[in-house]
Design brief:
Layout lengths: L1 E6 L8 H8 L7 H19 L6 E7 L7 E4 L4 E10 L5 E3 L5 E4 L5 E5 L13 E7 L10 H16 L17 H5 L8
Antiparallel strand pairs: 1-2, 2-8, 3-7, 4-5, 4-8, 6-7
Helix pairs in contact: 2-3
Length: 190
Amino acid sequence: MTLFRTLDPAVEPVTLSEVKAHLRIDHTQEDGLIEGLIRAARQEVEKATGQALIDQGWRLVLDDWPPQDTVFLRRTPVKAVLAVTLFDADGAGSVIDPATYLLDSVSLPARLHFSRRPLEPGQAMNGIEIDFSAGYGEAGTDVPDLLRRAILMLTGHWYEFRAQYGVADQPVSLPQGFQRLIDAFRMPRL
């Protein structure tokens, strides 16, 4: 099972001006650095929680169908399943009829249940692809405030300690209280 992003978010959950206000910075000399820290902090929050903060595309690749005919989509909140593609031995893909599966986007993790077991893939590896969209919305204001605050906290922490450690040593640490902000959004382990 492999999960990877197919479409990056169009914006970050917090803006450069929000972070600069949080850090009390009024110059522009380090805007590039701060934008990179915002992006890294968003990625860290998404990795730690299993959440997609801003709308983005994902693909889950499977070798075979799970025994219980239910596939867990380990990136939330899932908005829609875009396509389920099954590949034959020649590598030709066929899209499975959406009427044969049901998305439960309320559960954590989201579940995709098939009313009847689909055909087995013809390829021994990576014979099934499930494309879906996930995220809270298209704008940073759609993201829960605790997750936005976690990004602000993490960006500020990394900005403060940027000169004491080299790039290869980053991230050096997580600020105290960061885990508490994201704990309610963590994906339960299966």
